[in-house]
Amino acid sequence: MFSISLNKNKILLYTLLFLFSVSTLAQAHHLNGKIEVEGGKTLKNLIIYLEPADSSKLKLEPKLHKILQKGRQFNPDLLVVSPGDKVQFLNDEDREIDHNIYSLSRLKNFDLGLGERGSVLDITIDKNGAGNFYCSVHKLMEGRMISLNTRYFTILERPGKFILPNIPAGDWIVKVFVFHRRYKVVPVTITLNAASHEEIELKVVKK
Amino acid sequence: MTKFIITILIFLSACSSTPEIVPGKGAIYGTISAESHKDIIAKASKDDGSGYGINGEVTFTKEMVNYRKLKELYVCLINPYLKSGKDHLLIADDDKMSHRSLAITRGDKLWVQNNSSKVLTFFLAGQDDSIQVYSPVNPGKRSVIEVEQEGTLELGSDENESLITTLFSRAGLISQMHSSGDEYIFKNLDPGQYKILFWFWRLGFIEKNITIKAGENIKLNQVLSVDKIMANKNDP
């Protein structure tokens, strides 16, 4: 008797979860698009992201990111974060190699001191922007961090097609972070609603 | 006898690095060098077999930044009366620029020589959307712009992303480029308030206020390291 009652509860729970996910998905949209560069140039690492048109609707739960250092390389060496996020630097070298990670960028000034093998050192991001970080010991250790007011982004290794999945309905501004300082993308405002199937074209142009 | 010769040598060495006093003018001089982070030096000084320390000296391997041999350390003097308009030349080949960094001032002329095999269009980008664009430069030719921007700038080319020079631009700045351990000197300076700034592109800079007085030479040695730059930023 007890067993049957438990199963009924489980069925009810699964049904509710199913209905909840269906209703959530019904409100979420995939944004498909294509990005091209003026003159057909191949630019590396284009970050396409969405910010809500009404910034008061922005509520981002802090997230934890990890950067590994094995082989004297940052992995990942390009990290997208948001204000409030924590970034952990883990020295996972397989032998005794020390690192000293620092940044003197506009995004965040930090000096993590001696990072011995096995150490976990962290920083908290407090604003938007972009900056490089380095290891002062090893000359090829360099990484980039971009802090954006969004969790909806994709990094394209080269221009082409992209998809941003599970975007809630509403008004959004599509922006692109371009590392090449000669180029920019004019932001585009879009509305995602139940009826729409969005497909946009973005153009990277010279400043 | 040996002691006497050593004393004479020390005296002569001191005389050669001290600038001559010019009536009505002042000077600032010293050495510029770079070193590892203090925590790395501390670990090396323990000589515990960590792999990069012998008798308190950091042993640099080929993967490491060798601070003793660091090049392109800039010493910059800043004062509104210092004149701009200096010519600088950067040379581009197929995969790199002649300089990774350059300290300049607004009004300086920045020449770029194209020694690569392709036509290159250079630009100078500021922190915001400000940009200055050179006319396209054929192989073997050069082009020039007058620098209009301030801050940390980037000189790059449309065609080749590996051609990058980081520029530090401030109004009223004159600069000297040195290697670690070199001596620098700014002499025949009018008395007044100046800023002196020591910069390495990958580390950042240390900035100090100085007062130049007539008939006075100031000696200022500076070491650049991550921890020293961070301390200067927090307590400039």
Describe this structure in words.
The complex is a heterodimer of chains A (about 210) and B (about 240). Chain A contains one helix and 16 strands. With about 210 residues, chain A is mainly beta. Chain A folds into two domains: about 30-60 and about 150-205, Immunoglobulins (Immunoglobulin-like, Sandwich), CATH 2.60.40; about 65-145, Sandwich (Immunoglobulin-like). In chain A, the strands form four sheets. A five-stranded mixed sheet of chain A has the order 4-10-9-6-7, with no helix packed on it. A four-stranded mixed sheet of chain A has the order 12-1-16-14. The model of chain A is unreliable at about 20-25 (pLDDT under 50). In chain B, about 15% of the residues lie in helices and about 40% in strands. In chain B, a hairpin with a 3-residue loop joins β15 and β16 (about 205-210). The radius of gyration of chain B is 21 Å and the shape is globular. The interface of A and B includes residues 96 and 98 of A.
Q: How is the CATH topology of the largest domain in chain A named?
A: Immunoglobulin-like
Give the termini separation of chain B. 48 Å
Largest sheet of chain A: 5 strands, mixed
Unreliable sequence segments of chain B: none
Name given to the CATH homologous superfamily of the largest domain in chain A = Immunoglobulins
Q: Helix-strand pattern of chain A, N to C?
A: HEEEEEEEEEEEEEEEE
* Strand line-up of the largest beta sheet of chain B: 6-12-11-8-9
Report low-confidence residues of chain A grouped into runs of 5 or more: 18-26
CATH architecture call of the largest domain in chain A: Sandwich
Could you tell me the number of beta strands of chain A? Answer: 16
Radius of gyration of chain B: 21 Å
CATH superfamily of the domain at 83-170 in chain B: Cupredoxins -  blue copper proteins
Please count the beta strands of chain B (DSSP E, at least 2 residues each). Answer: 18
Give the total of domains of chain A: 2
CATH architecture of the domain at 83-170 in chain B: Sandwich
Strand content of chain B: 35-45%
CATH topology of the domain at 83-170 in chain B: Immunoglobulin-like
Mean of pLDDT of chain A: 88
User: Biggest chain pair contact, residues each?
Assistant: A-B, 27 and 30 residues
Structural class computed from helices and strand pairing of chain B: mainly beta
* Anisotropy-based shape of chain B: globular
